[in-house]
Amino acid sequence: VQFVESGGGLVQSGGSLRLSCVVSGFTFSIFPMGWYRQGPGKERELVASISRTGDSIFYQDSVLGRFTISRDNTKNTVFLQMNSLKPEDTAVYFCNSPTPGGAPLIDVWGQGTQVTVSS
Q: How far apart are CA 94 and CA 74, in angstroms?
């Protein structure tokens, strides 16, 4: 299994970014997918998740109304549109397939993509 995240960068507070994660090595369309992040000195946390068909979506309270997760099963890709970014969103962002409890299913991580939000 391989996860390749991209789209991060440095933005000012209030700005936007669109993250992408291309997945290979498993049957993408039958698994839920999620975005995780790990901020400086913090543990990795689940930010958003989407069911295999896209009809069920979860957002962490801190990003609700600002972030939008989506997926394209024809391209084995999951996206995270991030608007109204805040300095506390600064983190390395990763994708993985979440279990019902939110823990990552796959014991493999990509390199992640760095998001830095300046105040």
A: 20
Q: Is 68 exposed, middle or buried (0-12, 13-18, 19+ CB in 10 A)?
A: middle
Beta strand segments in 1-119, E: 2-6, 9-12, 17-24, 33-38, 45-50, 57-59, 67-72, 77-82, 91-96, 113-118
Round to whole Å and give the CA distance between 119 and 117. Answer: 7
How many whole angstroms separate alpha carbon 63 and alpha carbon 6?
Answer: 19
Is 55 within 8 Å of 39 (Cβ atoms)?
A: no
Mean pLDDT of residues grouped by 10 in the chain (119 residues)? 98 98 95 97 97 97 98 98 98 97 95 97
- Find all residues with CB under 8 Å of 118, minimum gap 6, and list them: 10, 11, 12, 13, 87
